[in-house]
Design brief:
CATH architecture of the largest domain: 3-Layer(aba) Sandwich
Number of strands: 18
Helix content: 25-40%
Radius of gyration: 23 Å
Oligomer: single chain
Structural class: alpha/beta
Number of helices: 13
Distance between the termini: 33 Å
């Protein structure tokens, strides 16, 4: 059982300003749950030390007194202490090689590790996530990048009035700007050369829903992938509409043997499927990529296809907002994740090289890999709304007990990767990654 709960400051990225628990949630835990909370001092966190003090927390330079520590991103190996419990995005369940040393260190010290990503309900849906805010920040950034790219191509666009997401004081401020641009589109229309303007979304989960929430501030009409293929044939189209297309798995892939698409089979045997997304790419103006991907799955946008597309003419597709940000992944031209303060690059299909910024021949790609950090106050608040319900049960748990006897909520117990330094039954497969 814990005497003190710690909230760690974030130091993995320069512009990481999020917190797992906000002052509002800390006040609730202190006053209603009678917990003692220590917040590690930070001069860059979106919430000030004074705000946490006012909420009833103590401020300290370190968290030595704390037996349970909450963070957001990975923690350095030097931070861990013996037999303590850590709750954060560890990014280890796929055997990510860059985090295996961290995991080994936690095992040596007999630590407990709870991974937010694996806190799920009975249907396997994640309960604690930043995904919606990744989608919103990614969409704001992509529209901002589109404005820069259109200006570079000689088009006058009100999108140049937008700012990158992290330059807004709040999500509502960003939404107000985009709503105003939506009103101008409704009144003045879209340049003829850019019509029909179509935004394609791959994926339909929390990330995609967040991105669509932002696009919904524009005058939008949703059409099916099938209708997209017919849209360019129509001679007369409204000049003040943005078209939205959501691509699901059955739209993106086909069985290599011509058998009907089967979602369960696709996830079980992705090698039996190939991408057909190239049929749709030429008709998109923007692509917002929100799919889960690993190396078992087919790619959606390949370098080879981009080279072929640019060899013919300047394509309609202007910007790829790769919110998923899998390097060399579903969007193969995402050659690197980008930083918040240097968020976009242009990929040249001929040279297969990138140039940071929005100028040059090729495809503009937005690939920031910590997008929720661009909306630190809003995303922290939404994340903590769920996490706060699990803090006291974690604090009260006696981790010295046998795993089978641990008194934890089912969702948290499923997310316990390490118990006293040992991989728990569900995560024994990770031994292979640690060799």
């Amino acid at each position: 059982m814990s005497n003190f709960i710690g909230i760690r400051h974030e130091d993995k990225y320069k512009l990481e300003r999020r917190a797992p628990l906000t002052p509002r949630h800390v006040a609730r835990l202190v006053k209603q749950k009678k917990l003692d909370i220590i917040v590690q001092s930070s001069d860059k966190r979106i919430f000030t030390d004074d705000e946490y003090v006012h909420a009833g927390a103590k401020i300290a330079k370190d968290l030595k007194k704390c037996s349970v520590i909450f963070g957001v991103k990975e923690m350095p190996e030097s931070f861990f202490e013996p037999e303590k419990t850590y709750v954060f995005f560890a990014h280890v369940v796929k055997g990510q090689p860059y985090n295996m040393t961290m995991l080994r260190r936690m095992m040596e010290l007999k630590c407990n590790l709870i991974e937010y990503e694996k806190v799920v309900d009975e249907q396997g849906k994640r309960l604690i996530f930043f995904g919606r805010y990744a989608g919103m920040a990614g969409m704001i950034n992509s529209l901002w990048a589109l404005g820069l790219r259109l200006k570079e191509s000689g088009y006058s666009s009100n999108l140049v009035k937008l700012k990158q997401a992290h330059h807004y004081h709040s999500l509502n401020e960003a939404k107000d700007d985009i709503s105003a641009i939506g009103q101008l589109i409704a009144e003045k229309g879209i340049p003829h050369e850019l019509r029909p303007f179509v935004i394609g979304f791959t994926g339909y989960g929390n990330v995609s829903q967040g991105a669509q929430e932002i696009v919904g501030l524009l005058p939008v009409k949703e059409i099916s992938p099938e209708k997209l293929l017919e849209l360019h044939k129509r001679k007369k189209l409204p000049d003040n509409l943005v078209y939205k297309v959501i691509f699901k798995e059955e739209n993106l892939f086909e069985h290599v043997d011509g058998e009907p698409f089967d979602l369960h089979d696709y996830y079980a045997n992705p090698h039996h499927y190939r991408s057909v997304f190239e049929n749709y790419i030429p008709y998109l103006s923007m692509l917002i990529n929100c799919v889960y991907w690993d190396k078992r799955y087919p790619r959606l946008v390949t370098k080879q296809f981009l080279k072929k597309m640019y060899a013919k003419e300047n394509p309609r597709l202007t910007v790829i907002g790769d919110i998923s940000c899998d390097v060399d992944g579903s969007v193969e031209c995402t050659l690197k994740p980008t930083e918040i303060d240097d968020p976009i690059f242009v990929y040249n299909p001929d040279t297969e090289q990138i140039t940071m910024g929005y100028k040059g021949k090729g495809m503009l790609v937005m690939a920031v890999d910590i997008l929720p950090a661009e909306l630190p106050r809003d995303s922290s608040d939404g994340f903590a709304d769920v996490l706060v319900n699990f803090v006291k049960p974690i604090a009260d748990a006696d981790f010295t007990e046998h795993f089978d006897d641990l008194d934890l909520p089912k969702a948290i117990k499923k997310a316990l990767i390490l118990h006293n330094g040992e991989l728990t039954p569900e995560y024994k497969y990770m031994e292979e990654f640690l060799k």
